[in-house]
Amino acid sequence: MAGLRGIAVVFLLLLPIDAFYIYEPSHQPVEEIAAPTVGDLILEGFTFNGPNSAQNPLVTMPKLTIKKRAVPRRSVPHESSLAQFDQQESGSRVKRAESYPIATGSTPSQTQSAAIDEDLLDFSYFSAVQFGSSGEMLYMLLDTGSSDTWVMGSDCKSTACGTHNTFGSANSNTLKTSETTFSETYGTGNVSGMVVTDTVELAGMKVSLAFGSGSEVSDHFDNYPMDGILALGRPGASNLGGPTFLQALGNAKLLPANIFGINLQRHVDGTTDGEVNFGAADTSKFQGQLTYVDTANDQLWEIPVDDVSVGGVACKMTGNTAIIDTGTSQLFMPPTQAKQLFAQIPGSVQADSETFHIPCDTTISIQMVFAKMPFSISPEDYVGSPVAGGDLCESTIFGVQVEGPNQFLLGDVFLKNVYSVFDSDKSRIGQ
After folding, report:
1. Are strands 302-305 and 320-324 parallel, antiparallel or unpaired?
2. Are strands 392-395 and 356-359 parallel, antiparallel or unpaired?
3. Catalytic machinery residues
4. What span, in angstroms and rounded, lies between the C-alpha atoms of 325 and 281?
5. 3-state secondary structure at position 155
6. pLDDT (tens digit, 9 = 90+) per residue, 414-426?
7. Running DSSP on this structure, what letter comes out for residue 342?
8. Beta-carbon neighbour count of residue 40 at 10 Å?
9. Could you read off the pLDDT of 143-163 as tens digits, one per residue?
């Protein structure tokens, strides 16, 4: 079994809704949680809205995001701002009207790897990617829950594009345009435009890739430093028709194996070892052996869940699957299972149909079980922001039915606790 950091997973991508998931719970009267009977387990609805940090500090920066450079350069201070970083990297090229603070990842020691930066809040994780003949740097969300890559295009007039770096023919003499349109709809937000082709470089590897050039980008993206999404999802869910980035690397025979590993850091711990490794796992990121689980289908990075345990007691949640999604910040499970889980945490109360409040000082063990192996979620990750007027905090585990009645979405709340390997050759995930 891999040790403390032994698995990885990421954000939601179900068609027609892809990975960008800004989640805002609809608060209703609080009720004490009792151990549910079968008749008590009622599925409830949920709402998704844009982030509003003043009204809803718990979802200030939900899931998705950002930018950085995929070339060796680590002269930027550990804590800086994206505006300052853009100035250092690009001279006067800065378009940003806002300063997006980031924690810079350390340079990986393993080849064919790139550092992962984050937003100081442990909500969003991203890398810098170079596009086109000029090597234009864009900060891209690494999203295992999406299968189509896109950037903000230079012809975009949307508010979000005005505060981000964009990419177009002025940035590259190798850019090829087309008449093919694309459109992506997320839990909150959408983007549409034309399909283009150019070179994309990350971790020292450059390939030709078809990707979306967004000419219309919803205002939701104005809240995040990201200039686009680098899709690491499975090709079966792609709408663009061309190879994904991982497929393109494989087609160019740049990798010894068509796999990638992801390690997400916690800023609160002061760690900077977030990285994505292509072609081989970084064995320094975990202890013991990885436990591999075959995927449930060829559309998503989705694997069977044996069970969930709380305080060492099995919840007997059988027959479920989990989408492993780096583009999602929180953890979602169907309302019935969520109510069952929180019933095992002393002092928990249900705030509304999908939100739960738990004691801020709880240290109870929560574990996901895959292939009979338990993987713990730290209280650092499942205990969220304090609730006004008491000793309770909002949990980052929500009772939301993402798609099917037995489908979990395991985002960064889970992934920060494990090192994960996504194996395209053998259709499996290792942890």
Report:
1. antiparallel
2. antiparallel
3. 143, 325
4. 18
5. coil
6. 999 999 999 999 9
7. H
8. 12
9. 999 999 999 999 999 999 998
